[in-house]
Write a structure and sequence with these properties.
The chain has helices spanning 17-31, 45-52, 67-81, 91-100, 133-142, 164-174, 196-204, 208-211, 225-234, 250-256, 271-278, 309-320, 323-340, 343-356, and strands at residues 2-6, 36-41, 57-59, 85-88, 106-111, 127-130, 150-152, 182-187, 214-219, 241-245, 259-262, 283-286, 301-304. The chain has 357 residues and is an alpha/beta fold. The protein folds into two domains: 2-156 and 342-356, Rossmann fold, CATH 3.40.50; 164-340, Rossmann fold (3-Layer(aba) Sandwich). α11 crosses α13 (323-340).
Length: 357
Amino acid sequence: MKIFFATLHDPKFPMGGAEKVLLEMALALRFQKKHEVEVAVNPGDLSRELESSHIPVIFLQRSKLRSFETLKSLRQAIDRFQPDVLHSHHRYLTFLASFFLKSRVKILHTEHVWRSDKMLLFQSGHFVTAVSQGVGENLIKNYKLPRSRVRVIPNAVSVSPPHWDHVNQLKEKFRKSEENSCLALFVGRLEIQKGLIYLLEALTALSPEDQKKIRVLVAGDGSLNRELKKKAESLGLSGRVFFLGHVRPIADYIALCDFLILPSLWEGMPLVILEGAAVGLPAIATDIPGTRETILPGKTGLLVPAKDVPHLSSALAHWLNQPQEIKEMGLAAKKFVQEQFSFAGMLNRYEEVYRAL
């Protein structure tokens, strides 16, 4: 089977969950399943990873002002490659393909994010997959897609082992003091969506004793970087919260820490929770669509209401004083992900959709 992936991403940021899923799918479908695979994408981290893995790349322009060039590149690639399916991971490319290429190729759109905007621009191709039940129900309810044309295929992860020499170096840097018994990790873009401001406020709401028990590593960058750093400083968290910027590989930081914190306001299917759980790292996260599908509350992690500083602070305090529970939930999270979010299972379900188009 010939599979043609297409996406766009912001080159100012490293690969996010959607790009990681596409990369791992392309590699597995090409080298494990022996399909023919090509990927259309704008230049950036994803294109470099694909090229270094010997996956053919067709370069696209990310600017919507150059839509004609993007469409021309897609059409030429499809006419040359003659794929069985165009699998788009970006709604703008699905929009273009649905209007101008639908007669040339079967189009599958994968929606990664719970949305409520630009409904008039949304086109779904021939079929849609959603990365979580929450995203799928949103497409049906708010975008009026027929349930028969939407299938939920949860994201899954293919975990790479950490580099232990690097992990040990990080331990020397961030685990020097005995009083800092817990190291928590936040991973995400520094934007409103990710809710880091609520985590900062929750840390200041901890008792003085509990504040001494935690350090938080913030892995990511974004438009709110400077503002959030100033906020952390004004709250007296300079010695407790460390802004690392973009870090790679994230597996090393997951291996370093005791638990994840994801205070997002909305998500599709947060891959970092699955990445952490896959190696036994539980999470405190917000009870929102998508995220709530990755955690069994009280068994594999803790869920708190979004934007709720008191509940988030209470969850932090609970774990800071229950280190054994963190370990037990981490083991349960690992088992849960292995059983429910198998990468091989995800790949098989996508192949079923490809064949059915």
